[in-house]
Amino acid sequence: MSTKTSQGALNLLKAIETMPGHTGDDYRTLSELSRNQWNKLSAELRRNNLVYTERATVTKNGKEATVFKWYAGEKPVRNKKRNTKRTPPALRKKATKPTETTTTTTEAKPNGYNFRVPRWTSDELSLLKEKFEEGLTDEQIAELLPLRNKSSVRQRRGILGLRHFSRKGRGTKNQHTHVKYEKDTELAKKTTTAKKETPSIVRVDSVQSSLVTAINELVDARIQMWLKEHGITNRLNELEKKVAELSSGQSSKDAEQDAKLDSVRSSLANLTNLLKDL
């Protein structure tokens, strides 16, 4: 027993030795310790290797809970057998490399796919070209090649530049491009001719000015008709005549007045001359 253990820790150790296998709450209640005191004293006992705990499962209120039970002394060492299916390192055998090189053979799956596809041989390539020129399909050529399927034949044929012509008469990619170019050219020509045939667009300003002029002429005609119907035009004509007469009478009166003024001016001039002679 360590000499550094306090008296409170020794009292708690004595209670654990008397009643081993209980939880911390049980010992705290029995020793009348607060939670803070229990934490300090139990930590001191564990630090001096005077107590140990073991995990246990209990049922509380119908539910399973995990608790730690306390025991006095050092924790016993138990050799547990490892429950594993792995082979220990000591019993493992090191894999030895084969001294002789083995040739791998291709095994085909039931669906015709090979685990390891070998390279194309010259005989296979020549047979592929020959049967393609004869007009056989990819599936028919694959039946003549035991190590190849339809997709591998189609892929190799594409690499070699061997292309089929469809039954609808459409050819290779270059022919498709040429046809598309011709269609685009025809469409461009049609668009150009349609643009040439379209009539010239009349400007909105000219239409608006002509419309305003026509409206003004119509309004003037309606006003003249209304004035004529109500006799206003005749009255205006009479007023114009009277104004003309007055202007002419006024002009004659102005002429007479001017003549009188000229005579007065001449008499004044004669009188001035007489006065100068005196």
**Count of DSSP E strands?**
3
SSE string, helices as H and strands as E: HEHHEEHHHHHH
- Physical arrangement of strands within the biggest beta sheet: 1-3-2
- The end-to-end distance, rounded to whole angstroms, is 175 Å
Radius of gyration: 64 Å
And the CATH topology of the domain at 7-72? Answer: Arc Repressor Mutant, subunit A
Helicity level: 55-70%
CATH class of the domain at 7-72: Mainly Alpha
> CATH-wise, what's the superfamily of the domain at 7-72?
Winged helix-like DNA-binding domain superfamily/Winged helix DNA-binding domain
Number of helices: 9
Shape: elongated
Q: What class, by secondary structure content? A: mainly alpha
User: Taking all residues together, what is the mean pLDDT?
Assistant: 76
* Poorly predicted regions: 100-110, 169-179
CATH architecture of the domain at 7-72: Orthogonal Bundle
**Oligomeric state, counting identical vs distinct chains:** single chain
- Beta-strand content estimate: 5-15%
**Largest sheet descriptor:** 3 strands, antiparallel
